[in-house]
Amino acid sequence: MIKAKPGTYALVFASSTAASIRVGKFGSLRLQPGFYVYVGSAHGPSGLRARLAHHLNPSIRPPLAC
User: What is the mean pLDDT of residues 28-46?
Assistant: First the structure.
């Protein structure tokens, strides 16, 4: 169980093939095979527990209008 306290975290992703993915305000990014690291902070009221839960649940958001 992850505690609900503030902190900084790193998520490590591996891509075995080239792919285009949509990343929030960055839009579409082209990934090559390899490892990627995302570093985030969790200083809100539920801290690390809430931020990691957010990353573990798939996002269902409408595409942004340009």
Answer: 89
